[in-house]
Amino acid sequence: MAQSIHPAATHHLPIFITEPGQTDYLFNGVVTFLLIAVLVVGNLYFQLHALPERRAHRTSKVQMEIVAILCLISLFTHNHIYWIAGLLLAFVHIPDFSTPLDSIAQSLAKLSEREAEKTEEPAPLSEEPAEAAESPPKVVGHGGGI
């Protein structure tokens, strides 16, 4: 049985209209395009979202962890202020205060003849003659008396 075209239909049908039972190429193309577009846009979104964290890898560990947590909070809550704060924190160089302070503490420990790890026991006092320790110190007056 030959299929005939309805009398009200035009004789020339567009290419995207298929016969019954045939493959719809336009539908398959649109589905493929949408899947690829969703994957590409999602990948770009996650790459942009991870920008502060990748930038923070050049900084200290604590700063990197704070930026990573801000990015995760931004991702899950959709509050962009956390992402902006993480981005700003990733670009700001926070100076390292702990390393010079540790060096100063170790130098002071060496000067006071103590080990840096043993801070419980005070350093032994230098031994002075008992006479000097018992006698009161001499006071130099300014000329006036009582």
Account of the 3D structure:
The chain has helices at 25-49, 51-56, 61-77, 80-91, 98-111, 130-134. α3 (61-77) runs antiparallel to α4 (80-91). The termini are far apart. It has a domain at 25-91. The protein is built from six helices and no strands. The relative contact order is 0.06. It is 54% helix and 0% strand. It has 146 residues and is mainly alpha-helical.
Poorly predicted runs are none
Largest β-sheet summary:
none
Structural class: mainly alpha
Q: What's the total number of strands? A: 0
Kindly state the mean pLDDT as a whole number? 80
Net shape: rod-shaped
Total helical segments = 6
In percent, how much strand structure appears in the residues?
A: under 5%
The rounded Rg comes to: 40 Å
Whole-Å distance between the termini?
A: 141 Å
Helix content: 40-55%
What is the succession of H and E elements?
A: HHHHHH
What's this model, at a glance?
The chain is mostly helical.
Keywords summarizing the entry:
146 residues, mainly alpha, 54% helix, 0% strand
List strands and helices in order, with pairings:
Elements: H1 25-49, H2 51-56, H3 61-77, H4 80-91, H5 98-111, H6 130-134
Helix pairs in contact: 3-4
